[in-house]
Write the structure tokens for this entry.
Amino acid sequence: MKKILTIGRYFKSKFGQRVRKIPISLQGFTCPNIDGSVAKGGCIYCRNESFSPSIVKISNLNTSPVEMNFKITQNPLLEDQVAQLKEQFKWHSNFHKDKFAVRKYMVYFQSYTNTYAPFETLKRLYQEALALPNVVGMSIGTRVDCVEDRVLDLLGDYVKKGKEIWLEYGIQSVYDETLKATNRGHSTQGMQELFEKTRQRGIKVCAHLIYGLPKETPEMMLHSLQTVLKWGIDGLKIHPLYVVSGTYLEKLYHSKNYTPIELTDYADLIVKSLQMIPSDVVIQRVSAGAHDETLLAPKWCFDKNIQMRYLREKLKAAGIEY
């Protein structure tokens, strides 16, 4: 039986106890393919509220028109962002401490692009995060076109000081035609070099892939996996593509121009994927979904527990313990 190195097993092996990732979403953060820097409208499937439990906490704020990017010279939202960071961390960490007896935490900057801001803003937020009680490190969600070398140097310095630092890169696919069709706003150019620069500083790389993207075949999805493995990664997240309301993908779905992936097909891909993944690559996720009325299809993405039970049965039958 092949035993997968899940993120829980990895943390327990490294820290001797459970470690919980605390999701953080901050006012003012956005993406360059939302604000018009590289594209308009965001990815065709993206509705950040469906991905992050923390973004709801800031969605009803009377927000300033200021949005984070590399060009702003002053950030009037910084103190509010620090306060939101501390408030969200306190709520989530107390919940997991009281319910699951978790005592160590990773701050997970989750929603939008969390390196897409002035350097001094990032430095302050990262330092505040690492100073929170019982925090062993950070995981930062970002895009491959939004990471400056000085940010890598800063994060590398945290690694030297004993902190666990991950950059989570939303790759989704290694096919440029798919990235263009989904309005990613970037190509695959420079991805491998960025992975190498990141890992050279001791920062761990987690690649995100999406299975079920428009017009992609199972062979293409597995090729994307093989490619990022060849580039060199420390961790992996695989998501099924699902349709939520308020996205361009919804229009494609209703016009019969997009058919969501079936659970049986997705499970088959997960089995094949985990069979080829080296034993030292940390598997952070193999499922995803939206647990509210925004989910349109596929309906099997509504209940993560049902999804995971089915996936574990298929993996066990293939000799894999997840």
The chain has one domain: 2-321. The chain is about 40% helix and 15% strand. The CA atoms of residues 18 and 213 lie 34 Å apart.
